[in-house]
Structure formats: structure tokens, C-alpha cells
Amino acid sequence: MDATTGDTEAAVEVRGLRKRYGDVTAVDGIDLRVGRGEVFGLLGPNGAGKSTTVEILQGHRTRDAGDVRVLGSDPGSAGRELRARIGIVWQDESAPAELTVDETVRHFARYYPSPRDPGEVIGLVGLGEKSGARVKSLSGGQRRRLDVALGIVGGPEVLLLDEPTTGFDPAARRQFWELVAALADEGTTIVLTTHYLEEAEALADRLAVITAGRVAAEGSPAELRRLHSSLATVEWTGHDGRAHSERTGTPTRTVAELSASFDGEIPGLRISRPTLEDIYLGLTGQESAR
Ligand SMILES: Nc1ncnc2c1ncn2[C@@H]1O[C@H](COP(=O)(O)OP(=O)(O)OP(=O)(O)O)[C@@H](O)[C@H]1O
To answer: N or C: which end of the chain has fewer CB within 10 A?
Structure first.
């Protein structure tokens, strides 16, 4: 994976993107830049505008304003040539139920000028043992893997995934993460939307937290943590025997002062920084459970 996006050529570039549905402003001025080979996560609560943004990148939804480039072309007006270089995983792929997995992937491969080897793709998504099974006999998670196989069989340079692991059990989710990491290692640029913070953290080189159609924060998971965790919480048991806590930008000073007042060890001392989850919940206006 390549996290040095500042200098890399952009695979996806979005400036001032806006989209309304009647009275609802779904996307309200989004700017994004995804470098080639990067895994970029769009993270946010329901209705934040993630799917709308990805659908515009796919060229399947019009926009009201803004400049959008995928691999240097505008997906809104580009033709087959660009589409062959972009992989899309549909939420409900209409794979013919009577065909086998192998037949389906081979069938879809024919739509692309230089497809990947269908057998290799089936193995990559973990459906090797189901190669001869009919599509209608697959479980929900297996069906989703087939969707991914159909999204990557064209050998896309950019893969756009909208909530790829919704409905997966934890083991299937882990396997899917490995698949995304393998594709990223091969140099595929991946943009994915997710509700799952741990998924964004596990997969994304960089992520944008989207709320109400805007980018509330952007950066690598480590950068987000660093930028938004300047305040530490110092907790201790006071002279009165009760629990005390203080949010401070200078925890060392607080501890030194407490240490002086206790003449040594501070009872019940605990110093914590916000987790990425705390930061995410704060950015999206949701309450932390802690
Ligand atoms: N086809 C549509 N017609 C009208 N309103 C829409 C349409 N699609 C989305 N919206 C509205 O636009 C807003 C953004 O929706 P969008 O699906 O992009 O959000 P999201 O972040 O992907 O949400 P989720 O995580 O629930 O999928 C929401 O208020 C939604 O109700």
C-alpha cells in the first residue's frame, strides 16, 4: 500500500462536489483526492452521503456541481474505455442464478478487453471450492464474494466498493479484508464506504469522515488520532476519596501538580487519550459510550 499520496498521481480527484435530491442535500461540497495504489475509506453514519459520492464516481449518478476525475476522466461523461478500468461491486448483482460460479465469472470476463484469469479470481475471493456450484445455491456471504469476483475480473485499476462487508459474519469480514489488502498490494486503488470504524482502520491508508454531506476530517487513522487527541483525560482519587477527572492539553503538568499535592504517589491515577472511536463519535455528533 502506498500512503505517500502527497506526491502520487491521483486516481480519484473530487472538488466541490454537490448533489441534492429534491429538498435533501446529500453531498454538500466534498473535496477528495485518492492517490494511485491507495486504499481510501469513506466513513460516516447513515445518510451522510457516502453512497451518493461513490455512485457519482462510478458514473451512475449525476451531480449538481463540482469537478470529478477518475483516472483523469470525468465518469459522468466517459464511455466504455474508462468503465473497463473501474471495478464496481454492486449491492445486488444480477448474476444468473442457474449458472455456476465458474460460468458466471467467465461470462462477465468477456465484457472486458484484458480480463484477469477467471479461475485465479475465483480462488482470490475464496470461492475455489464452490467453482462448480450454481449461483442460486450460494450463501449470502458467498454470493457477496461472487459480486467482488465480478467487480475485479476486468482487472480494474480503481475498485469502488460500497459497504462491501455488510451482512458478512466476522470470519468472512476478516477474509474480505485480506482480499482487499492483496488487491492493494497488486497496486489496485480502492475506495470503499463503510459504517465500521475497525474496517476503515484495518484497511484504509487514509480515510475521510463524512457527516451531513461534508468531510468532517481526513487523514490516515494515525493522523486523525494525532490531530484530534490533543486533550488527554487525567483521572485520580482525590483527598476527599472521590473520583476526579480533568481534560487537559498539559497532562504532565497536571500530574506533577497532583504529585506535589499528594507528596508522592497519586491514588487511582489514570491518563487516557481518546480512541479513534471516541474521535469518530465526536466528529459525527454521536455520544461516546464511555
Ligand atoms: N435516490 C434518492 N432519492 C432521494 N433521496 C436520496 C436518494 N438517495 C439518497 N438520498 C438521500 O440522500 C442522503 C444521503 O444518502 P446516501 O445514501 O448517499 O448516504 P450514505 O452515507 O451512503 O448512507 P448509508 O450509510 O445509510 O448508506 C440521505 O438523506 C438519503 O435519504
So the answer is: C
Atom of ligand 1 nearest to the CA of 53: 18
**Does 47 contact ligand 1 (Cβ within 6 A)?**
yes
Helix (H) or strand (E) holding 102: helix 101-109
What is the C-alpha separation between 281 and 290, in angstroms, rounded?
11
Cell of 188: 489496485
Render pLDDT for 73-86 as a digit per residue (tens, 0 to 9). 999 998 888 888 99
How far is 95 from 208, CA to CA, in rounded Å? 32
Is the pLDDT reported for residue 54 higher than 60?
yes
Count CB neighbours of 76 within 10 A: 14
SS in 3 state form for 188-227? Answer: CEEEEEECCHHHHHHHCCEEEEEECCEEEEEECHHHHHHH
Substitution candidate for ligand 1 out of 23, 27, 46 with most atoms within 8 A of CB? 46
User: 258-271 pLDDT, tens per residue?
Assistant: 999 998 899 999 99
* Any ligand 1 atom below 6 A from CB of 194: no
Beta strands 86-89 and 158-162: pairing type?
A: parallel
- Measured from the CB, is residue 52 less than 6 Å from ligand 1? yes
Going from N- to C-terminal start, the domains of the chain cover 10-220, 230-273
**CA nearest to 196, candidates 170, 232, 157, 233:** 170
Q: Is the Cβ atom of 46 under 6 angstroms away from ligand 1?
A: yes
